[in-house]
Amino acid sequence: MYLVKSDFYLKKGLDIASHHRYQGHTVYDSFKIVYVEDLPQQPAASLDCGVYVASYAEFLSERKDIPADLDPEEIRLRYGALLCNYGNQKIQAGAVNDSEAPLKPVRNRTENNSSERITIL
């Protein structure tokens, strides 16, 4: 309903009545809602909400299951390393802004089942 009221479809030039992805649906029931139980929750009074939101967005966009045990510190380190690497690529390319920067590499995420922690100094 929000998308309809905010003229999202109109602004995007989408004709819902004839669009193949919306066949058999109305503008009010176009999205499948899935309820997921046992999602990891940030501890009360923690300031990790951004880490959890970014992680959920990443897992959902890659269509991967959200792990039951998210480690906010590990995620911060990973995102920090990705940003640092991208910043170094921009410097090497002499880019002043993101439009001049080289394309961001596709991330190949591998699962690490090891309980060993690596300290980055």
From TrEMBL:
Q: Where is the Ubiquitin-like protease family profile domain?
A: 27-66
**Keyword Nucleotide-binding on this protein?**
no
Q: Name one GO molecular function term.
A: cysteine-type peptidase activity
Q: Supply the Pfam families for this chain.
A: Peptidase_C48
Q: Where is the composition biased (Polar residues)?
A: 111-121
Q: Name one GO biological process term.
A: proteolysis
Q: Which family does it belong to?
A: Belongs to the peptidase C48 family.
The name on file for this protein is Ubiquitin-like protease family profile domain-containing protein
Which species expresses this protein natively? Solanum lycopersicum (Tomato)
The root-end lineage is: Eukaryota, Viridiplantae, Streptophyta, Embryophyta, Tracheophyta
